[in-house]
C-alpha cells in the first residue's frame, strides 16, 4: 500500500536517530530550521532491564544484545557476515548504538588526522585536530563526559567537564605499574555522569553499561538530546524504514521514501536537504539502494567508493589473575583507565600505527565463566566450575586492546543480491579481513600488555586473538576527502555528487585512529551542522521541492 499524500516539506530530513543524527537535529532546530527525523526503530524499553535483580546476567542479552543477527528485533535487518572476520554490532532505535555502547570517550590525536603525512600510508583528513577541537569541547559537555583533564598524550586544552570516578584498588595497581615501566596511563574518560548533568543521574556503578543504562547515568542520546529536540519542534517518526533517498530531474535530493513498519504503508517525505546518519553499514546500504538512472552505481557514488574501506577496530584482550580481592565488577564497565603508550607508529616495530588499551570492568560472577574476555573459556564447567569462579571473581582484570584499523578497499559493505529485510529492502553483505599489519600490531600490544599485567602483580596472564563479536565501531565506508574521484563527501560531509545530500556518522572517517570514535563522530556532526547553518541561504535545493512553495 502506498500513501503519497501531501506531506509537509521540511528544511531538513534526517535518516537515523543515533548520536550524529541527534546532534545535527538539535543544532539545526536551535537555528529555527524545520527538521524531521526518520528512525527504523523505536525508543528503548528500559523496563525490560533487570540490572538490580538476580536474573540480570541470564536476561541481559535477551533484549539488549549488541549483535543484530542474534537480537533479531523487528527494527534490525539481516547482515551476511560469512566473509567477515569481525561481526558488526549496533542498536537500531532512538538513541542508536549509544544505547548499548560502553561510553568510553576519546578524541583522536593530532597525528590521526595526518597519517599520510606522518607515516606515508592511508590518507590525511581534509581537516585538522585544531579545526575540530572546539566542537569536541562542546559535545563533551552535552555528553556529560567525566574524567580527569590534561592528559599529556593530547595537546593542552583537553579539559573534562565532569569530575572523575574515584580510583579503586585495581586502578591504583595499574597506575603504579605503568609509572614504574615509564608508560602512559590515564584515568578513564567516559560519557557517564558522576553528578547530575543534562538530564542524567549520577552513576551508581552497576557495571552494566553495555546493556542499556537502567539508572539514566550513561549519555545515550535518547536521554541527552532527543527530549531537547522534541521541545525544539523536531518531528521524530519511529518505525520508519527508509528505502531510498530520492532525487529530482536536476540531480538534487528531494526527500526520502520510507515504509511505516507497523502499517506497511509507503510514504514520501520531502525535504530541502537530506542528512543520512545510519552508521557505517546502514548509510552505504541506503545510498547503494538509492541507485537511479542518474546515479546508476548508487546515490553519490560516482567515485565507486560507497561501501569500501570498512574499518572496525580489531580487538583482543589480555587478562590477569591476582591474589588480592578487589571490586572488579564495579562500573564503569567500559573504561576504568586507559593507556596510549603504544597508540602511534614506533620505529622499533614492523607495523604502522598502534592500539589503545582500556582497563575494563569484569562483570558479575557468571561473567567469570563466559567467553568474554576469556576466549573459549576452556574447561570451566563441571568439577572446575567453583574453582574457576573463585579464582576469577574479584581477583581479575583485563586490558582491552583496540587496534587502529587501516583502510583497505577489499573490506567493504555490499547489498545482498538474494536476501531482503521484512520490508523488502536488500539486506547487507559484509566482507572484512584483518591485514598483516593489524595482526602484527595486535601481537606486539599483547606482549606489552602482558608485561603490564605482570608488573601490576598478576600471577597468571592469558590472552585472546582478535575476537569476532567486537565490531562496535563501523567506520570509513563513505569516506570524506577533497577529491571527488576518490571520496564520497567533502570536508563538511556534503556529497560531491548531490549538493543537498549530507552524511553525518562514522562512515565518513578516512582513517580510524586507535580510540573509541563517538567523540569524533559527534564533533563532526556538530561542525557540519554549523556549516549548514552558515551556508543555508546559498544551499542548493531541488526545484521539485521548491515548487511546493514552502519557505524557510
Automatic annotation (TrEMBL):
<comment type="similarity">
    <text>Belongs to the GMC oxidoreductase family.</text>
</comment>
<keyword id="KW-0560">Oxidoreductase</keyword>
<keyword id="KW-0285">Flavoprotein</keyword>
<feature type="domain" description="Glucose-methanol-choline oxidoreductase C-terminal">
    <location>
        <begin position="407"/>
        <end position="525"/>
    </location>
</feature>
<dbReference type="InterPro" id="IPR000172">
    <property type="entry name" value="GMC_OxRdtase_N"/>
</dbReference>
<dbReference type="Pfam" id="PF05199">
    <property type="entry name" value="GMC_oxred_C"/>
</dbReference>
<keyword id="KW-0274">FAD</keyword>
<dbReference type="Pfam" id="PF13450">
    <property type="entry name" value="NAD_binding_8"/>
</dbReference>
<protein>
    <submittedName>
        <fullName>Choline dehydrogenase-like flavoprotein</fullName>
    </submittedName>
</protein>
<feature type="domain" description="Glucose-methanol-choline oxidoreductase N-terminal">
    <location>
        <begin position="87"/>
        <end position="314"/>
    </location>
</feature>
<dbReference type="InterPro" id="IPR007867">
    <property type="entry name" value="GMC_OxRtase_C"/>
</dbReference>
<dbReference type="Pfam" id="PF00732">
    <property type="entry name" value="GMC_oxred_N"/>
</dbReference>
<dbReference type="GO" id="GO:0050660">
    <property type="term" value="F:flavin adenine dinucleotide binding"/>
</dbReference>
<dbReference type="GO" id="GO:0016614">
    <property type="term" value="F:oxidoreductase activity, acting on CH-OH group of donors"/>
</dbReference>
<dbReference type="InterPro" id="IPR036188">
    <property type="entry name" value="FAD/NAD-bd_sf"/>
</dbReference>
Amino acid at each position: 500500500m502506498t500513501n503519497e499524500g501531501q506531506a509537509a516539506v521540511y528544511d531538513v530530513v534526517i535518516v537515523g536517530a543515533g548520536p550524529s543524527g541527534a546532534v545535527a537535529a538539535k543544532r539545526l532546530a536551535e537555528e529555527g530550521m524545520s527538521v524531521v527525523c526518520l528512525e527504523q526503530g523505536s525508543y528503548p524499553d528500559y523496563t525490560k532491564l533487570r540490572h538490580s535483580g538476580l536474573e540480570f546476567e541470564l536476561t541481559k542479552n535477551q533484549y539488549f544484545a549488541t549483535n543484530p543477527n542474534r537480537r533479531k528485533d523487528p527494527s534490525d535487518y539481516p547482515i551476511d557476515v560469512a566473509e567477515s572476520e569481525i561481526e558488526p554490532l549496533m542498536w537500531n532505535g532512538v538513541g542508536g548504538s549509544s544505547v548499548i555502547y560502553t561510553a568510553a570517550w576519546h578524541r583522536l590525536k593530532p597525528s590521526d588526522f595526518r597519517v599520510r603525512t606522518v607515516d606515508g600510508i592511508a590518507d590525511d583528513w581534509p581537516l585538522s585536530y585544531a579545526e575540530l577541537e572546539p566542537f569536541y569541547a562542546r559535545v563533551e559537555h552535552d555528553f556529560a563526559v567525566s574524567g580527569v583533564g590534561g592528559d599529556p598524550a593530547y595537546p593542552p586544552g583537553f579539559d573534562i567537564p565532569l569530575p572523575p570516578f574515584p580510583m579503586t584498588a585495581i586502578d591504583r595497581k595499574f597506575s603504579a605499574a605503568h609509572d614504574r615501566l615509564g608508560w602512559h596511563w590515564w584515568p578513564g574518560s567516559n560519557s557517564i555522569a558522576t553528578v547530575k548533568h543534562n538530564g542524567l543521574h549520577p552513576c551508581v556503578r552497576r557495571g552494566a553499561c553495555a546493556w542499556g543504562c537502567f539508572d539514566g547515568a550513561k549519555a545515550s542520546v535518547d536521554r541527552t538530546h532527543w527530549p531537547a529536540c522534541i521541545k525544539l519542534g523536531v518531528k521524530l517518526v519511529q518505525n520508519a524504514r527508509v528505502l531510498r533517498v530520492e532525487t529530482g530531474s536536476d540531480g538534487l535530493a528531494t526527500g526520502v521514501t520510507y515504509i511505516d513498519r507497523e502499517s506497511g504503508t509507503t510514504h514520501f517525505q520531502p525535504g530541502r536537504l537530506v542528512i543520512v546518519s545510519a552508521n557505517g553499514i546502514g548509510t552505504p546500504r541506503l545510498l547503494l539502494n538509492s541507485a537511479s538512472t542518474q546515479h546508476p552505481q548508487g546515490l553519490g557514488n560516482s567515485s565507486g567508493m560507497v561501501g569500501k574501506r570498512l574499518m572496525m577496530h580489531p580487538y583482543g584482550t589480555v587478562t590477569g589473575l591476582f591474589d588480592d580481592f578487589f571490586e572488579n565488577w564495579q562500573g564503569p564497565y567500559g573504561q576504568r583507565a586507559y593507556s596510549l603508550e603504544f597508540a602511534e607508529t614506533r620505529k622499533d616495530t614492523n607495523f604502522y600505527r598502534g592500539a589503545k588499551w582500556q582497563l575494563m570492568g569484569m562483570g558479575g560472577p557468571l561473567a567469570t565463566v563466559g567467553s568474554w574476555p576469556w576466549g573459549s573459556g576452556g574447561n570451566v564447567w563441571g568439577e572446575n566450575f567453583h574453582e574457576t569462579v573463585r579464582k576469577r571473581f574479584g581477583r581479575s582484570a583485563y586490558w582491552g586492546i583496540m587496534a587502529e584499523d587501516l583502510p583497505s578497499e577489499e573490506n567493504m559493505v555490499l547489498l545482498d543480491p538474494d536476501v531482503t529485510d521484512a520490508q523488502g529492502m536488500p539486506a547487507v553483505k559484509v566482507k572484512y579481513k584483518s591485514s598483516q599489519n593489524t595482526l602484527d600490531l595486535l601481537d606486539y600490544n599483547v606482549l606489552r600488555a602482558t608485561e603490564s599485567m605482570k608488573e601490576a602483580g598478576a600471577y597468571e596472564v592469558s590472552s585472546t586473538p582478535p575476537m569476532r563479536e567486537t565490531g562496535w565501531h563501523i567506520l570509513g565506508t563513505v569516506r570524506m576527502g577533497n577529491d571527488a574521484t576518490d571520496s564520497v563527501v567533502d570536508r563538511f560531509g556534503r556529497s560531491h555528487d548531490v549538493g543537498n545530500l549530507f552524511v553525518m556518522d562514522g562512515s565518513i572517517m578516512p582513517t580510524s585512529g586507535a580510540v573509541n570514535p563517538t567523540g569524533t563522530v559527534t564533533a563532526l556532526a556538530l561542525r557540519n551542522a554549523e556549516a549548514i547553518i552558515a551556508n543555508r541561504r546559498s544551499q542548493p535545493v531541488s526545484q521539485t521541492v521548491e515548487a511546493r512553495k514552502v519557505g524557510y
